[in-house]
Write a structure and sequence with these properties.
The protein is mainly alpha-helical. Helices cover 52% and strands 8% of the residues.
């Protein structure tokens, strides 16, 4: 019984290309989803959740100022 002690060779160019494909496909959906958000107040493009709602930066600033002055 003989044991094969050779180190397997790998094609590093193919590995890099496959890694790039995975990286691009995993990043693009997140960016696309983030740009698809619409502010529930003014319907402008939104960046995320603020005060438990999806809002744009302008509405976020408006509600932050008013929430602090009315408290």
């Amino acid at each position: 019984m003989q044991t094969d002690h050779r180190v397997p060779t790998t094609n590093t160019a193919a590995m890099r290309q496959q890694h790039r494909k995975r990286s691009v496909s995993s990043v693009n959906p997140r960016k696309r989803d983030r740009h698809d958000l619409i502010c529930v107040v003014c319907h402008a493009p939104a960046m995320g959740y603020n005060f438990d709602q999806i809002t744009c930066e302008s509405c976020k600033a408006f509600f932050r100022r008013n929430a602090l002055t009315n408290a």
